[in-house]
Design a protein that fits this description.
This protein has 402 residues and is α/β, with parallel strands linked by helices. It has 16 helices and twelve strands. The strands form two sheets. Strands 1-7-6-5-4-2-3 form a seven-stranded mixed sheet, sandwiched between helices. Strands 8-9-12-11-10 form a five-stranded mixed sheet. α9 links the parallel β5 and β6. The mean pLDDT is 96.
């Protein structure tokens, strides 16, 4: 093999996703290392003052400063680009940095945003509280109701934002139809694809213009570091995202990019197994007498089962259920679990449970939670990689205490 093939392997887009997850974006140094190199450096030095000036003038390609770009971060971005079949991507320090940047960077005072009201609490804060402080108005709609999306559109609407499945109620929103409404009104659609993961849903291929991830979740998936990524067209990333990140600084650390590259290598096998475990847990809980409601996108009784079939390749690693007896009963169940642990996180190799009312969605008023179907008895279960029978036995034993 020639040296140049080692240093610059061909892209992996023509391979299947599993292959892209392992090889996409790898750039080898002169040492030909197997595992991606960790370029833990803040900055770069230049051969000459002229070269330095040329870098800043953008006439000499190359690295300047790791707030702008870094080779290990670039490998992570390129692997995500190839996985998602996007044109371009930028990595961020956290998922919230990705969401906030993707929404805020292209907007100006006087613009308008429409978003589905069922979303992660911090995303809702950005849309509902933060944007209006800068003169950007927002309207929240029931994401399942296409009429509401259409009616919310105004001449100054620039961005539509949604997550699907939603956190924590696992509603599945019709991405293709909502993208159509956005484009008809001259707006863009941004999709937070955290709950579906890139393994089960590809929003760009469904018509979305931008996809964002909290890489903290399944992409790391082993509880180690935070990260985020924004994927879109070259034009969108160049015009709106690149300079915003460069100047304002919520960039990904090279160390986190290296961890996340390792995470991507095993993402497919982990998410497949976690989804299989979630499906088994959902089926087992569906018939439990102490559970009044169970929501799992992979089951035929999911309220949007047809949309799931249309846009997702499988359910998800998340299950939501409601324990009879409100908050006290839900807390007794959480406190009795031995394998699955209480956390506000998700997508981890370790199974985790969350009580959304008192954690991720505690900022909302009781009325807003009720409107979203987030009840006092609701528990969000994130399936890990343990044996599903152990998880089910643990949940059944804890439900005895409900
Ligand atoms: C759907 C969704 N989007 C975004 C985020 C934010 O990600 P991060 O914690 O990496 O900032 C989270 C969770 O925290 C989430 O669940």
């Amino acid at each position: 093999m020639s040296e140049s093939r080692i240093a610059n392997p061909a892209g992996t887009r023509h391979y299947r996703p599993e292959t892209r997850l392992v090889h996409g974006g790898t750039l080898r140094s002169q040492f030909g290392e197997t595992s991606e190199a960790l370029f833990l450096t803040q900055g770069y030095i230049y051969e000459t003052a002229e070269q330095c000036a040329a870098r800043f003038a953008n006439t000499d390609p190359g690295y300047i400063y790791s707030r702008f770009a870094n080779p290990t971060v670039a490998m992570f971005e390129q692997r995500m680009i190839e996985l998602e079949a996007a044109e371009a991507a930028r990595a961020t320090a956290t998922g919230m940095a990705a969401v906030t940047t993707a929404i805020l960077a292209p907007l100006r005072a006087g613009d308008h945003v429409v978003a589905a009201k069922a979303m992660f609490g911090s995303c809702r804060f950005v849309v509902e509280d933060l944007l209006p402080r800068y003169g950007i108005s927002s309207t929240l709609v029931d994401g399942l109701d296409l009429d509401q999306w259409q009616k919310a559109m105004r001449p100054n609407t620039k961005t539509l934002f949604l997550e699907s499945p939603t956190n924590p109620t696992l509603e599945v929103l019709d991405i293709t139809e909502i993208a159509r409404i956005a484009h008809k009104g001259g707006a863009r659609l941004i999709v937070d694809n955290v709950f579906a993961t890139p393994i089960w849903q590809s929003p760009l291929s469904l018509g979305a213009d931008v996809v964002v991830y909290s890489a903290t979740k399944h992409i790391d998936g082993q509880g180690r570091c935070l990260g985020g990524v924004i994927l879109s067209s070259n034009d969108f990333i160049q015009e709106h995202i690149h300079n915003f990140l460069r100047q304002t600084g919520p960039s990904m650390s090279p160390f986190n990019a290296w961890v996340l590259l390792k995470g991507l290598e095993t993402l497919g096998v982990r998410v497949r197994q976690q989804t299989e475990n979630a499906a088994k847990v959902a089926d087992a809980l569906a018939k439990h007498p102490k559970i009044s409601k169970l929501i799992y996108p992979g089951r035929s009784d999911h309220p949007q089962a047809e949309t799931v079939k249309k846009q997702m390749r499988a359910g998800s690693s998340l299950v939501a259920f409601e324990v009879k007896g409100e908050r006290a009963a839900a807390f007794r169940v959480l406190n009795a679990l031995k394998i699955t642990r209480i956390s506000n996180n998700l997508g981890d190799a370790k199974s985790l449970v969350t009580h959304p009312t008192t954690t991720t969605h505690q900022r909302l008023t009781a009325e807003a939670r009720a409107e979203l179907g987030i009840t006092e008895g609701m528990i969000r279960f994130s399936a890990g990689l343990e044996h599903p029978d152990d998880l089910i036995e643990d949940l059944y034993a804890a439900l005895e205490k409900a």
